[in-house]
Amino acid sequence: MDDTDAPAVVAENLSKRYGGAVAVEDVSLRVATGDILGVLGVNGAGKTTTVEMIAGLRAPDSGHVRVLGLDPRHDRAKVRQVLGVQLQQAYLHHALTVAELVGLYRGFYPDPRSAEELLDLVGLTDRRTTRFERLSGGQQQRLSIALALAGRPRVVILDELTTGLDPRARRQMWATVEQLRDERVTVLLVTHAMEEVERLCDRVALLDGGRLLALETPAGLVARAGAANLDEAFVTLSGKELS
């Protein structure tokens, strides 16, 4: 098997507890190079904890992760060059402008995307001189995505990609993810938006109570549940509704 055939992301038997509360229990995932995996579940299902362990931002109590064959906690410097991460909360310097933040992040990588390309990808070209603190919540979200893509990562984690975005910005972000697929970038997409899953995802990891209930294509989930659509399949398999 050559590198192009090997999974881009491998997570095996990941578990994480906080005190007596189970956040993630025995979750295993493999994501092929160039695939988009949707990580789906209600709030508290373990989605963010799972991707934070994959990114090396949180240590699992048990299990292990490899991203392009690297351990994200022990090979931090190498992983930072190939993994882009956008999480729900952006902790960026509020007084810096969009252009200054993009320039700062581009400086971390040997061959970054151009500032113009990054701002165009997320529709912020006209906000380049705006300070971060003056951006709307949706614009801050889009800037975080641009920063995650600055170093031309081969794997990207996007946590609630389109939360807080208006319909036009949402479609633009979907187009950005589709461009990443065309570039053979592997994407882990944490989401609760079924339309997003149906449009973008090759497979879906359905989490509930920290456990992996299913790992299927969107159509496979619908067939497995004997449902008419993905919304119905989610309710059937998890016994819950996405809010």
Automatic annotation (TrEMBL):
Topology of the protein relative to the lipid bilayer? Peripheral membrane protein
Q: Which GO terms describe its cellular component?
A: plasma membrane
User: Which Pfam families does its entry note?
Assistant: ABC_tran
Which positions make up the signal peptide? none
The entry's localization annotation reads:
Cell membrane
Mind telling me which SUPFAM superfamilies this protein's record contains?
P-loop containing nucleoside triphosphate hydrolases
Keywords noted in UniProt: Antibiotic resistance, ATP-binding, Nucleotide-binding, Transport
Per the UniProt entry, what are the Gene Ontology biological process annotations, in alphabetical order? response to antibiotic
Record SMART domains:
AAA (SM00382)
Domain of life, per UniProt, equals Bacteria
Q: Tell me the ranges covered by the ABC transporter domain, including all copies.
A: 9-234
- Which InterPro entries does UniProt cross-reference here? AAA+_ATPase (IPR003593), ABC_transporter-like_ATP-bd (IPR003439), ABC_transporter-like_CS (IPR017871), ABC_transporter_ATP-binding (IPR050763), P-loop_NTPase (IPR027417)
Report the protein name in the record.
ABC transporter domain-containing protein
MF-aspect GO terms: ATP binding; ATP hydrolysis activity
Source species of the chain: Nonomuraea glycinis
Name the CDD domains for this protein: ABC_DR_subfamily_A
> Which Gene3D superfamilies does the UniProt record give?
P-loop containing nucleotide triphosphate hydrolases
